[in-house]
Predict the 3D structure of the following.
Amino acid sequence: MKVRSVGVIIVISSLLLTGCYGQKNIQDLTYVIAFGIDYDQTKEEMIIKALALDFTNVAKQEGAKPIPPPPEWIGQGKGKTVEEAIAKLYENSQPDLYLQHVKAIIITENAITHKFKEINESLARSNFFRFSVFMFSTTASLDDIFKTKALFFYPQTFAVYVKPRKEEGESNMLSPKSYREFLSEYFEPVGATYLPSLGIYNNSWVQDNEKYPLVQINGAHFFENQNYQGHLPLNEIMGIRWENQEKKKKTYIIEDPAHKRTVVRVTTSHLTIHTVNPTKPAFKLRVKGTAEILENVNNLSEKEIKKKIEKLIGEEIKKTYGKGLEINSDILRLGTNWFRFYNEDYLKFTRKHPGNDYLNKDSLQNIKVTINIRTSDNYKSKTHSNVYDTKSIYEK
C-alpha cells in the first residue's frame, strides 16, 4: 500500500515539474551587443541602431581553412521616442531580438545636444538594458562605428566600447562609465561627469600596406547639474585621469635641446582635494603617483627626472582645469568635497551667486605633485651610463 502511494506521488510530481518547453535555442534569437541612439532633427525622430552578433563566426574553427571576416548585422528602428523606435525594430526583426546581453550604448552628439534628457529618462525606465552597460558618445556615424572591426578582423566583441578596460600596459585616459556610475554623478549638484567619446582612427596599424581603422576614445562629452556642457578632445584633458579612482598608466617623454629622450611610465595613485576657504570655492590639489624609468638616454639623475615629471603632470592638470572653465564645467570635480563637507557654506555661496559656474581661474590655488620612482633601467645600462654617480632617491 505504501509502495502504491509513493508511486502516485511520483507521477503527480512529475506532471507538475516544468520542463524546457517554450525555451528558444541560441540560433533562434538575435543577440544584440551594442545599441546606438541618434536623432534626426529635421524629421524629429529618434533613430535606434542595433549591432547584432553572428555566432557562426565568433569562435575559431580547428583546421587549416581560414575564417572569413564576420559580417556586420546592423538593425535600425525609428520613432518619436526611444521606446517607439525599439518597438519598430522588434517588429522588423526575425529571429526575435534578445537585449539582455547589450554591453554598450552609444549616443551621438546630435542626440545629446537636442534630446539627452528624454533619452536618459527612457533608458532609466526601460527593462531592456541593465544598469551595468557601458555608456559612450560619438561625433561620428553610428554605422561607421559599428562596421569597424577590432584587430585581425576580430568581431566587434573585442572593440573598445564592448571591452573598454585594459588588463595591462597603457590605460585609456578616460575611465569607462557604466550607466549606474554615470547616473550617480549626473544627478549630483556639483562636479561634472562625462561620456567617453568614440572616433575612428587609422594611425597605428597597417594590414597589407593599407591603414587599418580602429575605434578609439578621442575625448568626452561633459555634463553638470543635469545639463550638457560641451565636448573636449582627449589631448586637452589628459589631467582628468588623476581624478579617476581607477589606476592609470601613461608614458611621458622628457626631451632636451639635443633631442635626446628620457622615457618614463607614470601610474596614478592618489589625488586629494583640500578646501582652502569654505566660504568660497578655493582648492589645493595633492597628487601622488609612481614611475618607472624605461629609457634614460640623457643620463639624467633620478632627482632631475622626478622634478621634470612632476612639473609636466602639474601643467597637465592645470591645462585640464582651464579647459573645464571654458565650458563652465568642474571636470576635476573639485566642488564635490566643498559640497559634502561644508554644505552650509556651499548653500550660502550659491544663494548669493546663482548658477553653476562657481569656479574661476583663481579657484585652483595650488597643485602639488609627488612622484616616487619605483624602478629604473640603470641596472641594464650601467656599462654606458654614469649610474654610480647619480644619487638614489632613497638617500636623504
Notes: Residues 302-326 form the longest helix (25 residues). The helical segments are 2-16, 82-91, 109-125, 142-147, 179-186, 302-326, 335-341, 343-352. Residues 74 and 272 are 45 Å apart (CA to CA).
